[in-house]
Specification:
The complex is a heterodimer of chains A (878) and B (508). With 878 residues, chain A is α+β, with helices and mostly antiparallel strands. In chain A, the strands form eight sheets. In chain A, strands 1, 2, 8, 9, 10, 11, 19 and 20 form an eight-stranded mixed β-sheet that branches. In chain A, strands 5-6-4-14-15-16-13-17 form an eight-stranded mixed β-sheet. In chain B, the strands form four sheets. In chain B, strands 4, 5, 6, 8, 9, 14 and 15 form a seven-stranded antiparallel β-sheet that branches. In chain B, helix 2 packs antiparallel against helix 16 and helix 6 (186-205) packs across helix 7. The longest helix of chain B has 20 residues, at 186-205. Chains A and B meet through helix 12 of A and helix 5 and helix 17 of B. Chain B: One of its GO terms (molecular function) is [pyruvate dehydrogenase (acetyl-transferring)]-phosphatase activity. Chain B: It holds the Pfam family PP2C. Chain B: Residues 95-498 form the PPM-type phosphatase domain. Chain B: One of its GO terms (cellular component) is mitochondrion.
């Protein structure tokens, strides 16, 4: 839509095949406008794309400030490859990028776009599984890609050595383009529509007023503005700190190499597909009759020794031939013709990498109207197009128009932004882009042990194997074979099959089912919400879709919705007194939910309500299992027969004021203990000591995850996102449209209730799959209904009770039934519907359930005794 | 005066007939002389201990026993350990092992014990049976009862299959008994087998029993066995009376049987044996949890029950002199049909064989006695370390808490001394110090017996503040037979040990 408009505007009077001939209408060196609606820092390809998309939407009061000149950062470097073969959220962005660049090419700009396709190689069986899993979800969602044999691979790319290849994936729509030209074309187009560019201007500080962006202080004067977008690439993090309050943008440059060979003879034609040889950490594309070869090395080096990224960064780069030569050998091994090149030209092209290897986008939690688009992780061109559109629309709409949850800048805490942390983490992030990422089994090596529960050291001696979320160390499972004095257990090598530590998980489950298990859940975000009067009730009523005006001493589970009815938070609210609540939200929400609540508090100008993040004040222990009640009664010397969803402050052992809440995150019987952290060890030891007689055992979060999946409890960021509503997720019970207060999203939910839903979260039991031999589902697998793609698995796990693998996923109307307006139970459960889930290329039949199937052997046997018959012994009767 | 039934050969051991002389019915003097003896001895001491002794000692044999001199420690050990038995379970249930022992006071002993594993269902049965009026009834009940219980535990379909297998050459085994050295002589064996087969047939005809209830199952087993004992004693259609079974019916037995399956402990209890749990508290001290309450006149509920079951005008006679009809101390028992049969049967049969006085005074509205057990359920926890079931011979001389402490300390290889009491007034401090030092030495000792039941008997009889007093022990063990019964009753003890690890991890 944008393109057609633009095209008609731009193509008037233009001949085909335009060259770059934009008038450089920059204002003179020392002048600067005093006011702009939007100021963008940086003029790299991302910044230009954001500017371009803003003007496309009619926002043209834009000032782009660049400390050097357009594209003088890392944007003019880079391989120029555009790879689509990625997880869906990534791919959607890249797909749009290619579409945009195609439009530019069609408009006549010679951006050297070639759809040469790409081949993605697997040297190992596990790599092939990883590729097949990607194939499985990319194909039904509209990407043309296919698995090819080494023979077909040779036909596509005759220069490849294929004898050690297990298989490969051919992605014909992958492309290459010239990043430098695109960067300039986008800048030119933005300027044409009114965006002003100011080069050689350094942003010294972002000015704020009441936590809103108010302007920008530059070396040439102050510019007042409403929005600020930080697209400063390598300098984004430092720029973020130049603000009151500082904004955290944890992206850090790492050295990143590629080499060009120059002309290598006629055999290297320009339509040779790009090669990604993940297992050799190598990619290669045709470049000027030869090759450009680059690497994502397993252990990279953070760039620049100095504490700041220098402006004359090009002078600070070292060409480290020692590091380079083994990598080059790997490339030669794959493409033997490279031997002809005696003197490859090595280029060190540092780029920003982020702590989890994902882009950093969106509005910051610290300052309103302060947006970020950076952290391109080695390939800015790939994301630039789509990111420009996504961020521009986010600025304009005030909220994302597509699912950008994986990329939000609010997924971080201050700890992520520390330079030391980033220099550590960056080392492994580069190589991780090409690593086989085993689900739940590829924890980071560096920058660990930052946020630890008070129980961390004890759990470690008890065999805990940790993983991190929000930099918080959480025990994933317990290796009970580990003895005191042994080295701490490590996670075994990852697998797509049954995890190698599965037996431990089984034991952990068993104890939650029959005895009592303890899970350290301290990482959960906790916020206290208080007011002097009852303002807090009205405030929370306006945020929550459930009725939160509950009696003191009780707990309510509620969502916080956005205007579309989608989730912004999924939490437990504990009413501690008439005018104070205690809120427990998922770990990864710590920054994001606080921002959401503060923003809505400001909107109400209800300064009487106080929010306080108390995450670190409490240690949280889940005591789970049928014996939990007796154990807690003994420990607290009081009757622990609490009604469900209520809470009580009790003394446990010698510790006072422990909040005991009668719910668990697994759906089993039990309690959540919120313990002032100084008592944590005391209570943990008491639990172990007294709990011995109840068969107590530590339980990890992975087991807990499987248990919640089997209970069909949807979870934040997997099932619950800004684009799913309570009705779709099966949480309709927690929506109170009849409460007298208006709440955010009520209209949308009301409408959805009347109209019906178009997607619905469904529980699947996988049939005919052998958990001991087959690849497991882990999330992301496509779901088919009568061979039509209808949805994607959001989370998957092993159901210990049913002894079956389980998938949760949203079902949408298949195309063949698109005349139905809504998706109904009848349609889902119809006898004619046969469901299959594709796991790495193999489709397994599965049985859908609208509600979790009853957990048969879960039903706790009553106190009543019944004799157990000994199985009939034939040797007696014979 | 004593009428014996020398032909009443009920039970036979593997090698020789062991009990042929043991079943005695003292036709006249036992019931006649009762009153006299009773009066005489009650005046001597009215503690319950002696009272019970009195009741029982009128059965004591007239055969004189040589009064032994002081026994050597080895001889004491031999006497104490003669009936030891230990069994360890390897099948991995909640019962780890048991120790058992008996010490006779009567000759022959009137107590029996029985332990078995159920084979068609999971679970272990352990029980103590204290006979009176001879050991016949206890012997018979202890050997037959577990079959009755085990078949009541079987679900309908399995019961049918079991019943069908009884017709075959190799029937299914219901139970695996331990320490079972005797068997019935052939003719009673067949009689008993027929009764049992009838019972299984009746049970399997009952149809599907929805909602199994352990209490009912145990009651059914107890009551039916008691009914069968009655039936077998009564003349067959031909009119002949089987003196063997009739003598069983004339004697009686109290019993305490525990069924243990995983964490589920059921105790079915008739009479005045007791089952006590040894519980280790979280402060590492031993707690005695008494599961049973004796069915005697001290048990007000029992007294009320009996009075209620009979017309108001009997309320002064039905319990008299702390006894049922002035005669029987336990208020529930197997056998003892002289308190159960109708007046007609009493006149036709009992009087015919045992004389007028065999009918209790004020015998108006029988039955006065029942074998219906009281069933107690306890869910075992890892703190429950062991269960002691013992006949009143033990409980008469030592308290449940002492018993539990003795076994508990025995478990951990330590000795327990009786609480310190100053032997006399006006002791000097250095005398007390002497005592304490002596006591300290005693505490260093390791228990002499590996078997906890033996350890209990040794301590019950010979325990002092300083340790075992050999002299006391030797004296008590070498009392002349007639006197023995005054000082101590038959003692039977079974200690069942639980597997705490199992109980920690067994499902809630």
């Amino acid at each position: 839509m944008y393109f057609s408009n633009l095209r008609s505007k731009l193509l008037v009077g233009l001949k085909c095949h335009r060259t770059l001939s934009f008038a450089r209408t920059f204002s003179s060196e020392d002048e600067i406008v005093a006011q702009a609606q939007v100021v963008i820092a940086g003029a790299g390809v991302v910044a230009n794309s954001v500017a371009y998309h803003l003007v496309l939407n009619g926002w043209n009061d834009i000032l782009v400030l660049e400390q050097g000149h357009i594209g003088s950062g890392t944007s003019h470097f880079g391989s120029g490859t555009l790879g689509l073969f990625k997880p869906i959220a990534h791919r959607n962005i890249v797909q749009y990028s290619i579409k945009l660049y195609q439009q530019l090419q069609d408009m006549g700009y010679d951006i050297e776009l070639k759809q040469c396709g790409s081949v993605n190689l697997a040297q190992t069986k596990d790599r092939l599984i990883a590729l097949k899993r990607r194939l499985a979800y990319n194909i039904p969602t509209g990407l043309h890609c296919e698995l090819i044999t080494p023979k077909q691979l040779e036909d596509l790319h005759p220069h490849l050595r294929t004898d050690d290849i297990e298989g490969a994936v051919w992605v014909p729509e992958d492309a290459v383009a010239n990043p430098k030209i695109i960067c300039e074309v986008l800048a030119g187009l933005a300027q044409q529509s009114g965006a002003k560019y100011k080069e050689n201007t350094v942003v010294e500080e972002v000015l704020t007023k009441n936590c809103y962006v108010s302007g920008v202080k530059t070396d040439k004067g102050i510019v007042n503005c409403e929005y600020f977008i930080n697209c400063a690439g390598m300098w984004a993090r430092e720029l973020g700190l130049k603000c009151k309050p500082p904004v955290r943008i944890p992206a850090y440059p790492a050295e990143h190499f590629y080499a060009t060979t120059g002309y290598l003879g006629q055999g290297v034609n320009e339509f040779l597909p790009c090669v990604r040889d993940f297992d050799s950490h190598t990619y290669a594309r045709e470049y000027q009759g030869g090759f450009m070869v680059g690497w994502f090395e397993p252990e990279a080096k953070p760039a620049f020794e100095s504490s700041q990224v220098p402006r004359d960064w090009l002078n600070h780069l070292k060409k480290d031939f020692k590091r380079f030569s083994p990598l080059w050998e790997k490339a030669v091994n794959r493409i033997p013709i490279l031997l002809q090149c005696k003197d490859p030209e090595l280029v060190n092209s540092p780029d920003n990498f982020t702590p989890d290897g994902r882009w950093i986008l969106g509005e910051t939690a610290e300052v309103n109207n302060y947006f970020v688009a950076c952290g391109m992780n080695g390939n800015s061109l790939q994301g630039a197009g789509g990111i420009g559109k996504a961020v521009a629309e986010w600025v304009i709409e005030g909220e994302p128009t597509q699912d950008l949850l994986p990329f939000t800048v609010q997924r971080f805490l201050d700890v992520h932004n520390s330079r030391h942390y980033l220099r550590q983490r960056t080392k492994e992030i580069v190589g991780r882009h090409y690593a086989v990422l085993y689900p739940h089994q590829c924890e980071y090596k560096y920058a660990r042990n930052l946020r630890c529960s008070p129980l961390y050291s004890v759990l470690q001696t008890r065999g805990a194997v940790f993983g991190i979320r929000m930099a918080y160390e959480r025990a994933l499972y317990f290796d009970t074979t580990c003895k005191r004095g042994d080295p701490f257990p490590q996670m075994p090598p990852g697998t797509f099959y049954k995890p190698k530590f599965f037996d431990f998980m089984k034991e952990e489950f068993q104890v939650c089912k029959e005895g009592v298990g303890i899970i350290d859940m301290s990482s959960f975000s906790k916020i206290e919400i208080k007011s002097d009067g009852l303002e807090v009730v009205n405030y929370l009523q306006s945020l929550c879709s459930n009725d939160i005006d509950i009696p003191v001493g009780t707990i309510v589970h509620t969502g916080m919705q956005n205007e579309q009815g989608g989730y912004e938070n999924d939490c437990m609210l504990v009413r501690q007194s008439e005018n104070s609540y205690f809120m427990v939200s998922p770990t990864s929400q710590q920054t994001r939910v606080y921002e959401w609540m503060t923003r809505n508090l400001e909107a109400r100008r209800d300064s009487m309500v106080h929010l306080k993040d108390v995450t670190s004040m409490y240690t949280v222990i889940n005591v789970v299992g049928p014996k939990a009640r007796e154990l807690m009664s003994e420990l607290s010397n009081s009757d622990m027969n609490l009604p469900p969803f209520s809470y009580k402050k009790v003394n446990v052992g010698y510790a006072s004021d422990v909040m005991v809440m009668s719910f668990t995150h697994t759906g089993e019987a039990g309690y959540c203990l919120y313990i002032p952290s100084e008592y944590a060890l005391h209570i943990y030891y008491r639990l172990l000591r007294v709990g011995r007689d109840y068969g107590i055992r530590d339980v990890g979060t992975l087991t807990q995850r499987f248990m919640r999946i089997e209970r069909f409890i949807p979870f934040w960021a997997e099932e619950l996102t800004s684009f799913t509503t309570p009705f779709e997720a099966g949480n309709g019970y927690s929506v109170r449209l009849d409460k007298k207060h208006d709440f955010i999203g009520k209209m949308a939910l009301q409408k959805q209730k009347e109209d019906g839903i178009t997607k619905r979260l469904i529980f699947f039991h996988l049939n005919d799959i052998d958990p001991d031999k087959d690849i497991w589902p882990w999330g992301g697998e496509p779901i088919y209904r009568n061979d039509e793609f209808v949805g994607t698995v959001t989370s998957a796990g092993y159901g210990f009770c049913a002894d079956k693998l389980i998938c949760l996923g949203y079902l949408q109307l298949p195309n063949s039934l698109s005349n139905n307006r809504t998706i109904t139970s009848d349609l889902i459960m119809s006898k004619d519907a046969a469901y299959q889930i594709d796991i790495a290329g193999h489709r397994f039949s599965c049985t859908p359930y609208l509600r979790a199937p009853p957990l048969i052997n879960m039903t706790v046997q009553g106190r009543k005794y019944k004799p157990t018959v000994v199985s009939y012994k034939s040797d007696i009767s014979n | 005066m004593v009428v014996r039934c020398p032909t009443q050969q009920l039970i036979r051991s593997g090698k020789s007939i062991a009990f042929c002389k043991n079943v005695k019915l003292h036709k006249r003097d036992c019931f006649y002389n009762f009153g006299d003896l009773h009066e005489k001895l009650v005046s001597y001491d009215n503690s319950s201990n002696v009272r019970l002794c009195v009741f029982r000692c009128f059965h004591s044999s007239r055969e004189p026993r040589t009064t032994l001199g002081k026994l050597s420690p080895q001889e004491v050990d031999n006497v104490l350990r003669a009936n030891e038995y230990t069994h360890e379970f390897t099948s991995g249930g909640s019962v780890k092992s048991y120790d058992s022992n008996q010490l006779a006071s009567n000759n022959p002993i009137e107590d029996t014990r029985s332990e078995a594993s159920c084979l068609l269902t999971t679970g272990v049965l352990v029980g103590v049976f204290d006979g009176h009026g001879g050991g016949a009834c206890a012997q018979v009940v202890s050997k037959r009862l577990y079959h009755y219980i085990a078949s009541c535990l079987l679900p309908q379909d399995h019961l049918k299959r079991y019943f069908a297998s009884l017709e075959t050459a190799e029937p299914l085994e219901l139970i695996q008994p331990y320490n079972d050295k005797v068997q019935f002589v052939e003719d009673v064996r067949d009689l008993y087998k027929n009764s049992f087969v009838d019972f299984v047939r009746d049970l399997s005809k009952e149809g599907y029993r929805s909602g199994f209830e352990m209490r009912k199952a145990l009651e059914t087993a107890f009551i039916r066995l008691d009914d069968d004992l009655s039936k077998e004693a009564l003349p067959n259609p031909g009119g002949t009376v089987n003196m063997k079974t009739l003598s069983v019916a004339m004697s009686g037995s109290v019993s305490c049987v525990a069924h243990i399956d995983g964490p589920h402990l059921h105790v079915a209890h008739v009479g005045d044996c007791n089952a006590v749990l040894g519980v280790l508290s979280d402060t590492n001290s031993w707690i005695a949890k008494k599961l049973t309450v004796e069915h005697n006149t001290y048990n007000q509920n029992e007294v009320n029950r009996i009075i209620k079951e009979h017309p108001y005008n009997e309320s002064n006679t039905v319990i008299k002199m702390e006894r049922l009809l002035g005669q029987l101390a336990p208020l529930r028992a197997f056998g003892d049909f002289r308190y159960k049969w109708s007046k007609k049967i009493m006149t036709d049969i009992v009087v015919k064989h045992f004389g007028e006085n065999s009918v209790p005074p004020n015998y108006y509205t029988p039955p006065y006695l029942t074998a219906k057990p009281e069933v107690i359920y306890h869910r075992l926890t890892p703190r429950d370390k062991f269960l002691v079931i013992a006949s009143d011979g033990l409980w008469d001389i030592i308290s449940p808490l002492q018993v539990i402490r003795l076994v508990g300390e025995h478990m951990s290889g330590k000795v327990t001394l009786s609480p310190l009491k100053l032997p006399r007034k006006n002791m000097k401090l250095n005398e007390i110090n002497e005592m304490l030092l002596q006591r300290k030495e005693g505490l260093k000792m390791k228990p002499k017996d590996r078997n906890a039941a033996t350890h209990l008997i040794r301590n019950a009889l010979g325990g002092t503040e300083y340790g075992i007093d050999h002299g006391k022990l030797s004296q008590l063990l070498s009392l002349p037979e007639d006197v023995s019964r005054v000082f101590r009753d038959d003692i039977t003890i079974t200690v069942v040990y639980f597997d705490s690890e199992y109980l920690r991890h067994c499902p809630a």
